[in-house]
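pipeline/complex-builder :: batch 7 item 3
reading input block
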Amino acid sequence: MPRRYVIDRVVKYVLLLNALISILIVMLIFFFTWREAGDAIGQVGIDTMLLGTIWRPQLEQYGIVPMIMGSVLSTFGAVVLGVPVALLGAIFLAEVAPNAVRELVRPAVELLAGIPSVIYGLFGIVVLVPLVRRIPVPRNNGFSLLAASIVLAVMILPTITNIAEDAIRAVPREYKEGSLALGTTRWQTIVGVIIPAARSGIVAAIILGIGRALGETMAMIMVIGNAIMVPEPLTSNPLTLFLHPARTLTGNIAVEIAYATGVHESALFATGVVLFIFIMVVNSAAHVLVRGRPR
Amino acid sequence: MNAIHAGTSSQSAQDARSAARLSDNLARRHLVERAAFGVVWAAGMVAVLALAVVVGYVLLQGASQVNWEFLTTPPRGGIEAEGGMSTTFMGTLYLVLLCIVLAAPLGVGAAIYLIEYAEQAQAGGRWLSRLVGVARFGVETLAGVPSIIFGLFGYALFVTLLELGFSLLSAGLAGACLILPVIIRTTEEALLAVPLSYREGSLALGATQWQTVSGVVVPAALPGIVTGIVLSIGRVVSETAVFFVTFGGSANMPKSLLSPGRTMALHVYYLAMETRAFAKAMGTGAVLVVATIIINASVSFLSRRVMGRLRGVG
Protein backbone atom coordinates (compact mmCIF):
# COMPACT_ATOMS: atom_id res chain seq x y z
CA MET A 1 0.00 0.00 0.00
CA PRO A 2 1.49 3.39 -0.93
CA ARG A 3 2.65 5.48 1.96
CA ARG A 4 0.09 8.22 1.53
CA TYR A 5 -2.75 5.74 2.03
CA VAL A 6 -1.16 4.57 5.27
CA ILE A 7 -0.88 8.19 6.42
CA ASP A 8 -4.46 8.80 5.39
CA ARG A 9 -5.70 5.98 7.58
CA VAL A 10 -3.53 6.85 10.59
CA VAL A 11 -4.58 10.52 10.45
CA LYS A 12 -8.23 9.56 10.43
CA TYR A 13 -7.91 7.79 13.76
CA VAL A 14 -5.73 10.50 15.29
CA LEU A 15 -8.42 13.04 14.38
CA LEU A 16 -11.10 10.82 15.87
CA LEU A 17 -9.14 10.85 19.13
CA ASN A 18 -9.05 14.66 18.94
CA ALA A 19 -12.79 14.75 18.49
CA LEU A 20 -13.22 12.69 21.63
CA ILE A 21 -11.16 15.04 23.82
CA SER A 22 -14.20 17.21 24.64
CA ILE A 23 -16.24 14.33 25.98
CA LEU A 24 -13.19 13.12 27.89
CA ILE A 25 -12.89 16.54 29.57
CA VAL A 26 -16.62 16.56 30.33
CA MET A 27 -16.30 13.15 31.98
CA LEU A 28 -13.24 14.25 33.95
CA ILE A 29 -15.09 17.36 35.15
CA PHE A 30 -18.04 15.21 36.24
CA PHE A 31 -15.78 12.67 37.87
CA PHE A 32 -13.69 15.18 39.82
CA THR A 33 -16.48 17.47 41.00
CA TRP A 34 -18.54 14.48 42.15
CA ARG A 35 -15.59 12.73 43.76
CA GLU A 36 -14.51 15.83 45.64
CA ALA A 37 -18.10 16.58 46.62
CA GLY A 38 -18.54 13.05 47.95
CA ASP A 39 -17.07 13.73 51.41
CA ALA A 40 -19.43 16.59 52.17
CA ILE A 41 -22.48 14.84 50.75
CA GLY A 42 -21.60 11.74 52.77
CA GLN A 43 -20.88 13.51 56.05
CA VAL A 44 -23.33 16.38 55.97
CA GLY A 45 -26.06 14.69 54.00
CA ILE A 46 -27.47 15.95 50.72
CA ASP A 47 -30.79 17.01 52.24
CA THR A 48 -29.13 18.99 55.04
CA MET A 49 -27.05 20.82 52.43
CA LEU A 50 -29.88 21.53 50.01
CA LEU A 51 -32.35 22.59 52.71
CA GLY A 52 -29.99 24.16 55.25
CA THR A 53 -30.19 27.93 55.56
CA ILE A 54 -26.97 28.38 57.53
CA TRP A 55 -23.51 28.22 55.98
CA ARG A 56 -20.93 28.38 58.75
CA PRO A 57 -17.89 26.26 57.92
CA GLN A 58 -16.26 26.89 61.35
CA LEU A 59 -19.24 25.12 62.94
CA GLU A 60 -19.45 22.50 60.21
CA GLN A 61 -22.78 23.88 58.99
CA TYR A 62 -23.09 23.70 55.25
CA GLY A 63 -26.55 24.81 54.14
CA ILE A 64 -26.51 26.28 50.63
CA VAL A 65 -30.03 27.75 50.53
CA PRO A 66 -28.68 31.33 50.96
CA MET A 67 -26.47 30.88 47.89
CA ILE A 68 -29.25 29.29 45.85
CA MET A 69 -31.47 32.25 46.76
CA GLY A 70 -28.69 34.69 45.87
CA SER A 71 -28.15 33.12 42.45
CA VAL A 72 -31.84 32.77 41.67
CA LEU A 73 -32.83 36.26 42.84
CA SER A 74 -29.98 38.10 41.12
CA THR A 75 -30.73 36.19 37.92
CA PHE A 76 -34.45 36.94 38.27
CA GLY A 77 -33.68 40.63 38.68
CA ALA A 78 -31.42 40.54 35.63
CA VAL A 79 -34.17 38.91 33.59
CA VAL A 80 -36.74 41.51 34.64
CA LEU A 81 -34.39 44.39 33.84
CA GLY A 82 -32.52 42.96 30.87
CA VAL A 83 -34.88 40.79 28.84
CA PRO A 84 -37.33 43.50 27.66
CA VAL A 85 -34.48 45.75 26.52
CA ALA A 86 -32.63 42.83 24.92
CA LEU A 87 -35.67 41.61 22.97
CA LEU A 88 -36.67 45.09 21.82
CA GLY A 89 -33.04 45.54 20.83
CA ALA A 90 -33.22 42.37 18.75
CA ILE A 91 -36.39 43.61 17.03
CA PHE A 92 -34.63 46.92 16.44
CA LEU A 93 -31.61 45.25 14.80
CA ALA A 94 -33.59 42.75 12.76
CA GLU A 95 -36.60 44.77 11.60
CA VAL A 96 -36.52 48.46 12.42
CA ALA A 97 -33.03 49.96 12.27
CA PRO A 98 -31.89 51.58 9.02
CA ASN A 99 -28.74 49.92 7.67
CA ALA A 100 -26.41 52.71 8.74
CA VAL A 101 -27.68 52.63 12.32
CA ARG A 102 -27.53 48.84 12.43
CA GLU A 103 -23.90 48.92 11.33
CA LEU A 104 -23.24 51.06 14.38
CA VAL A 105 -25.37 49.24 16.95
CA ARG A 106 -24.42 45.66 16.09
CA PRO A 107 -20.66 46.10 16.76
CA ALA A 108 -21.58 47.87 20.01
CA VAL A 109 -23.63 44.86 21.11
CA GLU A 110 -20.79 42.53 20.12
CA LEU A 111 -18.27 44.57 22.07
CA LEU A 112 -20.62 44.60 25.05
CA ALA A 113 -20.37 40.79 24.98
CA GLY A 114 -16.59 40.92 24.80
CA ILE A 115 -15.95 43.29 27.73
CA PRO A 116 -14.35 41.28 30.58
CA SER A 117 -16.62 40.64 33.55
CA VAL A 118 -14.16 42.28 35.96
CA ILE A 119 -14.67 45.52 34.08
CA TYR A 120 -18.41 45.31 34.72
CA GLY A 121 -17.58 44.44 38.32
CA LEU A 122 -15.22 47.41 38.63
CA PHE A 123 -17.78 49.77 37.10
CA GLY A 124 -20.37 48.31 39.44
CA ILE A 125 -18.27 48.80 42.55
CA VAL A 126 -17.19 52.35 41.67
CA VAL A 127 -20.37 53.73 40.08
CA LEU A 128 -23.43 51.52 40.64
CA VAL A 129 -22.96 50.55 44.29
CA PRO A 130 -22.66 54.19 45.44
CA LEU A 131 -25.76 55.03 43.37
CA VAL A 132 -27.75 52.20 44.95
CA ARG A 133 -26.51 53.33 48.37
CA ARG A 134 -28.32 56.64 47.83
CA ILE A 135 -31.70 54.93 47.97
CA PRO A 136 -32.91 56.06 51.40
CA VAL A 137 -33.62 52.77 53.16
CA PRO A 138 -32.11 51.85 56.55
CA ARG A 139 -29.24 49.30 56.49
CA ASN A 140 -28.88 49.76 52.72
CA ASN A 141 -25.15 49.85 51.99
CA GLY A 142 -25.25 49.58 48.22
CA PHE A 143 -23.72 46.12 47.88
CA SER A 144 -26.93 44.35 47.02
CA LEU A 145 -28.96 42.08 44.81
CA LEU A 146 -30.08 45.20 42.92
CA ALA A 147 -26.53 46.17 41.97
CA ALA A 148 -25.86 42.55 41.00
CA SER A 149 -29.03 42.39 38.89
CA ILE A 150 -28.19 45.60 37.03
CA VAL A 151 -24.67 44.35 36.24
CA LEU A 152 -26.01 40.97 35.14
CA ALA A 153 -28.73 42.60 33.02
CA VAL A 154 -26.07 44.44 31.00
CA MET A 155 -23.99 41.26 30.72
CA ILE A 156 -26.83 39.07 29.39
CA LEU A 157 -28.15 41.75 27.03
CA PRO A 158 -25.78 40.93 24.14
CA THR A 159 -26.29 37.17 24.54
CA ILE A 160 -30.07 37.49 24.28
CA THR A 161 -30.06 40.20 21.60
CA ASN A 162 -27.72 38.24 19.29
CA ILE A 163 -29.58 34.95 19.48
CA ALA A 164 -33.05 36.53 19.35
CA GLU A 165 -32.01 38.62 16.33
CA ASP A 166 -30.90 35.45 14.53
CA ALA A 167 -34.24 33.83 15.37
CA ILE A 168 -36.17 36.83 14.03
CA ARG A 169 -34.09 36.86 10.86
CA ALA A 170 -34.74 33.17 10.32
CA VAL A 171 -38.48 33.80 9.90
CA PRO A 172 -39.29 33.22 6.20
CA ARG A 173 -39.78 36.39 4.22
CA GLU A 174 -43.12 35.15 2.86
CA TYR A 175 -44.67 35.37 6.34
CA LYS A 176 -43.79 39.02 6.56
CA GLU A 177 -44.83 39.81 3.01
CA GLY A 178 -48.10 37.94 3.40
CA SER A 179 -48.95 39.92 6.48
CA LEU A 180 -48.00 43.29 5.00
CA ALA A 181 -50.00 42.48 1.88
CA LEU A 182 -53.10 42.15 4.08
CA GLY A 183 -52.69 45.81 4.97
CA THR A 184 -51.17 45.52 8.42
CA THR A 185 -48.64 48.04 9.62
CA ARG A 186 -45.03 46.94 10.11
CA TRP A 187 -45.55 46.90 13.87
CA GLN A 188 -48.65 44.71 13.55
CA THR A 189 -46.63 42.34 11.38
CA ILE A 190 -43.82 42.23 13.93
CA VAL A 191 -46.14 41.56 16.86
CA GLY A 192 -48.66 39.36 15.10
CA VAL A 193 -46.53 37.33 12.72
CA ILE A 194 -42.78 37.61 13.12
CA ILE A 195 -42.48 37.25 16.89
CA PRO A 196 -44.89 34.29 17.13
CA ALA A 197 -42.96 32.59 14.31
CA ALA A 198 -39.62 33.21 16.05
CA ARG A 199 -41.00 32.30 19.48
CA SER A 200 -38.95 29.20 20.22
CA GLY A 201 -35.70 30.88 19.21
CA ILE A 202 -36.53 33.88 21.36
CA VAL A 203 -37.29 31.67 24.36
CA ALA A 204 -34.02 29.81 23.76
CA ALA A 205 -32.20 33.16 23.74
CA ILE A 206 -33.71 34.09 27.09
CA ILE A 207 -32.82 30.70 28.56
CA LEU A 208 -29.21 30.97 27.39
CA GLY A 209 -29.10 34.43 28.93
CA ILE A 210 -30.29 32.93 32.21
CA GLY A 211 -27.53 30.32 31.97
CA ARG A 212 -24.97 33.05 31.48
CA ALA A 213 -26.30 34.95 34.49
CA LEU A 214 -26.23 31.89 36.75
CA GLY A 215 -22.63 31.14 35.73
CA GLU A 216 -21.22 34.63 36.25
CA THR A 217 -18.71 34.76 39.08
CA MET A 218 -16.30 37.66 39.51
CA ALA A 219 -18.62 40.56 38.73
CA MET A 220 -21.04 39.10 41.28
CA ILE A 221 -18.42 38.83 44.02
CA MET A 222 -17.56 42.47 43.42
CA VAL A 223 -21.03 44.01 43.79
CA ILE A 224 -23.34 41.63 45.65
CA GLY A 225 -21.78 41.98 49.10
CA ASN A 226 -21.18 38.23 49.60
CA ALA A 227 -23.29 38.06 52.78
CA ILE A 228 -24.16 34.49 53.70
CA MET A 229 -27.79 35.11 54.58
CA VAL A 230 -31.09 34.30 53.02
CA PRO A 231 -32.05 37.72 51.63
CA GLU A 232 -35.11 39.34 53.15
CA PRO A 233 -36.73 42.77 52.69
CA LEU A 234 -35.02 45.54 54.68
CA THR A 235 -38.31 47.26 55.47
CA SER A 236 -42.00 46.40 55.18
CA ASN A 237 -41.79 47.14 51.44
CA PRO A 238 -41.11 43.76 49.79
CA LEU A 239 -39.13 45.41 46.99
CA THR A 240 -36.36 46.27 49.47
CA LEU A 241 -35.51 42.56 49.29
CA PHE A 242 -33.30 43.58 46.39
CA LEU A 243 -31.37 46.01 48.55
CA HIS A 244 -30.23 43.11 50.75
CA PRO A 245 -26.71 41.80 50.14
CA ALA A 246 -26.40 38.15 49.13
CA ARG A 247 -23.96 35.59 47.80
CA THR A 248 -24.20 33.49 44.65
CA LEU A 249 -23.32 29.82 44.23
CA THR A 250 -20.44 30.81 41.98
CA GLY A 251 -19.21 33.44 44.42
CA ASN A 252 -19.33 30.97 47.30
CA ILE A 253 -16.88 28.71 45.47
CA ALA A 254 -14.51 31.44 44.34
CA VAL A 255 -14.37 33.30 47.65
CA GLU A 256 -13.66 30.29 49.86
CA ILE A 257 -11.81 27.73 47.74
CA ALA A 258 -8.37 29.26 48.32
CA TYR A 259 -8.33 28.55 52.08
CA ALA A 260 -10.85 25.71 52.40
CA THR A 261 -9.72 22.24 53.47
CA GLY A 262 -11.36 18.93 54.30
CA VAL A 263 -15.13 18.83 54.47
CA HIS A 264 -15.32 22.57 53.86
CA GLU A 265 -13.47 22.19 50.55
CA SER A 266 -15.67 19.25 49.67
CA ALA A 267 -18.79 21.28 50.43
CA LEU A 268 -17.60 23.88 47.92
CA PHE A 269 -17.35 21.18 45.29
CA ALA A 270 -20.89 20.16 46.23
CA THR A 271 -21.89 23.81 45.64
CA GLY A 272 -20.30 23.41 42.22
CA VAL A 273 -22.33 20.26 41.56
CA VAL A 274 -25.56 22.09 42.38
CA LEU A 275 -24.57 24.98 40.10
CA PHE A 276 -23.61 22.54 37.34
CA ILE A 277 -26.99 20.77 37.59
CA PHE A 278 -28.82 24.12 37.52
CA ILE A 279 -27.01 25.18 34.38
CA MET A 280 -27.24 21.80 32.66
CA VAL A 281 -31.02 21.85 33.10
CA VAL A 282 -31.24 25.41 31.78
CA ASN A 283 -28.96 24.73 28.80
CA SER A 284 -30.62 21.49 27.77
CA ALA A 285 -33.98 23.26 27.83
CA ALA A 286 -32.51 25.77 25.39
CA HIS A 287 -31.08 23.01 23.18
CA VAL A 288 -34.41 21.20 23.02
CA LEU A 289 -36.16 24.43 22.05
CA VAL A 290 -33.64 25.31 19.35
CA ARG A 291 -33.73 21.80 17.89
CA GLY A 292 -37.51 21.64 18.05
CA ARG A 293 -37.89 24.77 15.94
CA PRO A 294 -39.72 23.93 12.73
CA ARG A 295 -37.71 24.82 9.64
CA MET B 1 -76.34 45.97 -6.73
CA ASN B 2 -74.74 48.60 -8.87
CA ALA B 3 -77.89 50.67 -8.79
CA ILE B 4 -78.06 50.54 -5.04
CA HIS B 5 -74.41 51.55 -4.70
CA ALA B 6 -74.68 54.45 -7.02
CA GLY B 7 -78.02 55.27 -5.44
CA THR B 8 -79.22 57.55 -2.69
CA SER B 9 -77.32 60.38 -1.12
CA SER B 10 -77.60 58.77 2.32
CA GLN B 11 -75.67 55.79 0.92
CA SER B 12 -72.77 57.94 -0.23
CA ALA B 13 -72.73 59.70 3.14
CA GLN B 14 -72.40 56.29 4.77
CA ASP B 15 -69.52 55.48 2.42
CA ALA B 16 -67.80 58.67 3.40
CA ARG B 17 -68.32 57.89 7.05
CA SER B 18 -66.90 54.39 6.76
CA ALA B 19 -63.99 55.76 4.78
CA ALA B 20 -63.40 58.22 7.57
CA ARG B 21 -63.60 55.39 10.11
CA LEU B 22 -61.16 53.40 8.01
CA SER B 23 -58.66 56.22 7.93
CA ASP B 24 -59.26 56.73 11.65
CA ASN B 25 -58.38 53.11 12.13
CA LEU B 26 -55.35 53.43 9.89
CA ALA B 27 -54.30 56.61 11.65
CA ARG B 28 -54.61 54.88 14.99
CA ARG B 29 -52.59 51.91 13.82
CA HIS B 30 -49.91 54.21 12.48
CA LEU B 31 -49.88 56.05 15.77
CA VAL B 32 -49.43 52.79 17.67
CA GLU B 33 -46.70 51.84 15.25
CA ARG B 34 -44.89 55.11 15.72
CA ALA B 35 -45.05 54.84 19.52
CA ALA B 36 -43.88 51.22 19.44
CA PHE B 37 -41.00 52.03 17.09
CA GLY B 38 -40.01 54.81 19.44
CA VAL B 39 -39.68 52.29 22.26
CA VAL B 40 -37.79 49.89 20.01
CA TRP B 41 -35.36 52.62 18.98
CA ALA B 42 -34.86 53.51 22.62
CA ALA B 43 -34.00 49.88 23.43
CA GLY B 44 -31.45 49.79 20.63
CA MET B 45 -29.91 52.96 21.96
CA VAL B 46 -29.77 51.56 25.52
CA ALA B 47 -27.28 48.93 24.34
CA VAL B 48 -25.08 51.59 22.78
CA LEU B 49 -25.46 53.83 25.80
CA ALA B 50 -24.55 51.04 28.24
CA LEU B 51 -21.41 50.32 26.24
CA ALA B 52 -20.50 53.99 25.96
CA VAL B 53 -21.00 54.59 29.69
CA VAL B 54 -19.06 51.55 30.93
CA VAL B 55 -16.22 51.75 28.41
CA GLY B 56 -16.11 55.53 28.45
CA TYR B 57 -15.98 55.70 32.25
CA VAL B 58 -13.21 53.13 32.58
CA LEU B 59 -11.17 54.65 29.74
CA LEU B 60 -11.52 58.23 31.02
CA GLN B 61 -10.78 57.32 34.64
CA GLY B 62 -7.98 54.99 33.63
CA ALA B 63 -6.33 57.28 31.11
CA SER B 64 -4.77 59.46 33.80
CA GLN B 65 -2.97 56.42 35.22
CA VAL B 66 -1.68 54.98 31.99
CA ASN B 67 1.74 56.10 30.85
CA TRP B 68 4.92 54.41 29.71
CA GLU B 69 6.11 53.86 33.25
CA PHE B 70 2.82 52.28 34.30
CA LEU B 71 3.04 49.86 31.39
CA THR B 72 6.66 48.89 31.90
CA THR B 73 7.19 48.66 35.67
CA PRO B 74 6.05 45.74 37.80
CA PRO B 75 3.46 46.29 40.54
CA ARG B 76 5.19 46.97 43.86
CA GLY B 77 2.17 46.17 45.99
CA GLY B 78 1.42 48.04 49.20
CA ILE B 79 -1.78 49.77 50.25
CA GLU B 80 -1.69 52.24 47.36
CA ALA B 81 -0.66 49.48 44.95
CA GLU B 82 2.27 51.49 43.68
CA GLY B 83 4.09 50.66 40.49
CA GLY B 84 2.74 49.55 37.17
CA MET B 85 1.34 46.46 35.57
CA SER B 86 4.09 45.02 33.38
CA THR B 87 4.16 41.57 34.98
CA THR B 88 0.42 41.15 34.62
CA PHE B 89 0.67 42.03 30.94
CA MET B 90 3.37 39.39 30.48
CA GLY B 91 1.37 36.93 32.59
CA THR B 92 -1.61 37.40 30.28
CA LEU B 93 0.58 37.00 27.21
CA TYR B 94 2.20 33.77 28.45
CA LEU B 95 -1.15 32.36 29.47
CA VAL B 96 -2.75 33.20 26.12
CA LEU B 97 0.14 31.54 24.26
CA LEU B 98 -0.02 28.44 26.44
CA CYS B 99 -3.80 28.06 26.14
CA ILE B 100 -3.69 28.48 22.36
CA VAL B 101 -0.75 26.09 21.92
CA LEU B 102 -2.58 23.47 23.98
CA ALA B 103 -6.09 23.93 22.63
CA ALA B 104 -5.73 25.02 18.98
CA PRO B 105 -4.29 21.77 17.52
CA LEU B 106 -6.76 19.63 19.46
CA GLY B 107 -9.73 21.86 18.65
CA VAL B 108 -8.93 22.22 14.95
CA GLY B 109 -8.30 18.46 14.68
CA ALA B 110 -11.59 17.68 16.41
CA ALA B 111 -13.49 20.05 14.11
CA ILE B 112 -11.84 18.52 11.02
CA TYR B 113 -12.98 15.08 12.13
CA LEU B 114 -16.52 16.21 12.93
CA ILE B 115 -16.98 17.96 9.58
CA GLU B 116 -14.82 16.03 7.11
CA TYR B 117 -14.85 12.47 8.43
CA ALA B 118 -17.93 12.07 10.60
CA GLU B 119 -20.29 11.46 7.71
CA GLN B 120 -18.41 8.41 6.45
CA ALA B 121 -17.95 7.29 10.02
CA GLN B 122 -21.69 7.39 10.45
CA ALA B 123 -22.10 5.21 7.39
CA GLY B 124 -19.34 2.93 8.62
CA GLY B 125 -21.19 1.17 11.38
CA ARG B 126 -23.27 1.67 14.46
CA TRP B 127 -20.36 1.69 16.88
CA LEU B 128 -18.47 4.43 15.10
CA SER B 129 -21.55 6.55 14.47
CA ARG B 130 -22.40 6.38 18.17
CA LEU B 131 -18.90 7.54 18.96
CA VAL B 132 -19.40 10.57 16.71
CA GLY B 133 -22.68 11.34 18.45
CA VAL B 134 -20.94 11.16 21.81
CA ALA B 135 -18.17 13.46 20.56
CA ARG B 136 -20.75 16.03 19.40
CA PHE B 137 -22.55 15.84 22.74
CA GLY B 138 -19.20 16.43 24.44
CA VAL B 139 -18.58 19.66 22.54
CA GLU B 140 -22.10 20.94 23.25
CA THR B 141 -21.87 20.14 26.94
CA LEU B 142 -18.40 21.59 27.33
CA ALA B 143 -19.56 24.84 25.74
CA GLY B 144 -22.23 25.15 28.42
CA VAL B 145 -20.03 24.51 31.46
CA PRO B 146 -19.78 27.68 33.59
CA SER B 147 -16.26 28.99 33.96
CA ILE B 148 -16.04 28.58 37.73
CA ILE B 149 -16.60 24.83 37.22
CA PHE B 150 -13.60 24.77 34.89
CA GLY B 151 -11.78 26.49 37.73
CA LEU B 152 -12.89 23.90 40.30
CA PHE B 153 -11.92 21.10 37.95
CA GLY B 154 -8.53 22.65 37.26
CA TYR B 155 -8.00 23.16 40.97
CA ALA B 156 -8.86 19.52 41.78
CA LEU B 157 -6.96 17.89 38.93
CA PHE B 158 -4.03 20.11 37.96
CA VAL B 159 -3.34 22.14 41.10
CA THR B 160 -3.95 19.43 43.71
CA LEU B 161 -3.88 15.92 42.26
CA LEU B 162 -1.13 16.40 39.66
CA GLU B 163 0.71 18.66 42.12
CA LEU B 164 1.33 21.39 39.56
CA GLY B 165 0.37 23.93 42.22
CA PHE B 166 -1.00 27.37 41.44
CA SER B 167 0.96 27.88 38.27
CA LEU B 168 1.05 29.02 34.68
CA LEU B 169 0.75 25.38 33.62
CA SER B 170 -2.34 24.66 35.78
CA ALA B 171 -4.01 27.85 34.56
CA GLY B 172 -3.03 27.10 30.96
CA LEU B 173 -4.47 23.60 31.07
CA ALA B 174 -7.73 24.79 32.66
CA GLY B 175 -7.92 27.69 30.20
CA ALA B 176 -7.34 25.32 27.28
CA CYS B 177 -10.38 23.28 28.38
CA LEU B 178 -12.38 26.52 28.51
CA ILE B 179 -11.56 27.63 24.96
CA LEU B 180 -11.62 24.19 23.32
CA PRO B 181 -15.34 24.34 22.43
CA VAL B 182 -14.92 27.91 21.08
CA ILE B 183 -12.18 26.77 18.71
CA ILE B 184 -14.05 23.61 17.67
CA ARG B 185 -17.26 25.48 16.86
CA THR B 186 -15.70 28.31 14.87
CA THR B 187 -13.47 25.87 12.97
CA GLU B 188 -16.50 23.71 12.17
CA GLU B 189 -18.26 26.73 10.73
CA ALA B 190 -15.19 27.72 8.72
CA LEU B 191 -14.91 24.21 7.25
CA LEU B 192 -18.61 24.06 6.42
CA ALA B 193 -18.27 27.31 4.45
CA VAL B 194 -15.71 25.73 2.06
CA PRO B 195 -17.61 24.74 -1.11
CA LEU B 196 -17.98 21.00 -1.75
CA SER B 197 -16.54 21.48 -5.24
CA TYR B 198 -13.10 22.17 -3.72
CA ARG B 199 -13.08 18.73 -2.14
CA GLU B 200 -14.46 17.04 -5.24
CA GLY B 201 -11.86 18.70 -7.45
CA SER B 202 -9.02 17.56 -5.23
CA LEU B 203 -10.31 14.01 -4.82
CA ALA B 204 -10.85 13.77 -8.59
CA LEU B 205 -7.18 14.51 -9.08
CA GLY B 206 -6.39 11.38 -7.09
CA ALA B 207 -5.50 12.97 -3.78
CA THR B 208 -6.27 11.02 -0.62
CA GLN B 209 -8.78 12.45 1.80
CA TRP B 210 -6.06 13.70 4.14
CA GLN B 211 -4.22 15.31 1.20
CA THR B 212 -7.49 16.99 0.27
CA VAL B 213 -8.17 18.18 3.79
CA SER B 214 -4.65 19.39 4.54
CA GLY B 215 -3.89 20.77 1.09
CA VAL B 216 -7.19 22.27 0.00
CA VAL B 217 -9.90 22.49 2.64
CA VAL B 218 -7.91 23.76 5.63
CA PRO B 219 -6.06 26.44 3.62
CA ALA B 220 -9.40 27.65 2.26
CA ALA B 221 -10.86 27.74 5.77
CA LEU B 222 -7.79 29.30 7.36
CA PRO B 223 -9.13 32.85 7.86
CA GLY B 224 -12.17 31.39 9.61
CA ILE B 225 -9.97 29.20 11.80
CA VAL B 226 -7.79 32.20 12.69
CA THR B 227 -10.96 34.13 13.60
CA GLY B 228 -11.82 31.38 16.06
CA ILE B 229 -8.35 31.50 17.57
CA VAL B 230 -8.49 35.28 17.99
CA LEU B 231 -11.94 34.87 19.56
CA SER B 232 -10.52 32.44 22.11
CA ILE B 233 -7.60 34.80 22.80
CA GLY B 234 -10.28 37.30 23.77
CA ARG B 235 -11.90 34.70 25.99
CA VAL B 236 -8.63 34.04 27.86
CA VAL B 237 -7.86 37.75 28.22
CA SER B 238 -11.28 38.51 29.69
CA GLU B 239 -11.64 35.39 31.83
CA THR B 240 -11.16 35.75 35.57
CA ALA B 241 -12.92 33.00 37.50
CA VAL B 242 -10.93 30.07 36.06
CA PHE B 243 -7.58 31.72 36.68
CA PHE B 244 -8.62 33.05 40.08
CA VAL B 245 -8.55 29.47 41.41
CA THR B 246 -5.66 28.09 39.32
CA PHE B 247 -3.11 30.83 38.59
CA GLY B 248 -2.24 31.78 42.19
CA GLY B 249 -2.34 35.56 41.86
CA SER B 250 1.35 36.31 42.40
CA ALA B 251 2.29 39.72 41.05
CA ASN B 252 5.81 38.56 40.18
CA MET B 253 6.94 37.82 36.66
CA PRO B 254 6.28 34.13 35.90
CA LYS B 255 9.72 32.54 35.34
CA SER B 256 8.72 29.03 34.40
CA LEU B 257 5.66 26.96 33.63
CA LEU B 258 5.39 26.11 37.30
CA SER B 259 5.51 29.65 38.69
CA PRO B 260 2.29 31.41 39.72
CA GLY B 261 1.18 34.70 38.24
CA ARG B 262 -1.78 36.92 37.48
CA THR B 263 -3.44 38.19 34.34
CA MET B 264 -4.51 41.79 33.76
CA ALA B 265 -8.12 40.86 34.52
CA LEU B 266 -7.08 39.24 37.80
CA HIS B 267 -4.96 42.28 38.60
CA VAL B 268 -8.02 44.51 38.25
CA TYR B 269 -9.88 42.21 40.64
CA TYR B 270 -7.12 42.11 43.25
CA LEU B 271 -6.59 45.87 43.11
CA ALA B 272 -10.28 46.61 43.48
CA MET B 273 -11.14 43.99 46.07
CA GLU B 274 -8.04 43.54 48.20
CA THR B 275 -6.32 46.89 48.31
CA ARG B 276 -9.26 49.02 47.15
CA ALA B 277 -6.78 50.81 44.88
CA PHE B 278 -9.48 51.90 42.46
CA ALA B 279 -7.32 54.38 40.56
CA LYS B 280 -4.77 51.71 39.63
CA ALA B 281 -7.59 49.26 38.97
CA MET B 282 -9.08 51.74 36.49
CA GLY B 283 -5.69 52.15 34.84
CA THR B 284 -5.26 48.42 34.36
CA GLY B 285 -8.93 48.17 33.38
CA ALA B 286 -8.42 50.78 30.67
CA VAL B 287 -5.53 48.76 29.19
CA LEU B 288 -7.69 45.64 29.38
CA VAL B 289 -10.60 47.38 27.63
CA VAL B 290 -8.30 48.62 24.85
CA ALA B 291 -6.97 45.07 24.43
CA THR B 292 -10.56 43.78 24.22
CA ILE B 293 -11.49 46.39 21.63
CA ILE B 294 -8.47 45.50 19.50
CA ILE B 295 -9.27 41.78 19.69
CA ASN B 296 -12.93 42.40 18.86
CA ALA B 297 -12.06 44.64 15.94
CA SER B 298 -9.70 42.02 14.51
CA VAL B 299 -12.39 39.35 14.81
CA SER B 300 -14.91 41.43 12.89
CA PHE B 301 -12.26 42.48 10.36
CA LEU B 302 -11.26 38.84 9.82
CA SER B 303 -14.78 37.51 9.56
CA ARG B 304 -15.69 40.23 7.10
CA ARG B 305 -12.70 39.16 4.98
CA VAL B 306 -13.82 35.54 5.17
CA MET B 307 -17.27 36.50 3.93
CA GLY B 308 -15.81 38.62 1.14
CA ARG B 309 -13.45 35.89 0.08
CA LEU B 310 -16.11 33.22 -0.02
CA ARG B 311 -18.41 35.49 -1.95
CA GLY B 312 -15.57 36.22 -4.36
CA VAL B 313 -14.92 32.58 -5.21
CA GLY B 314 -18.32 31.07 -4.38
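note: The radius of gyration of chain A is 23 Å.
queue -> next item
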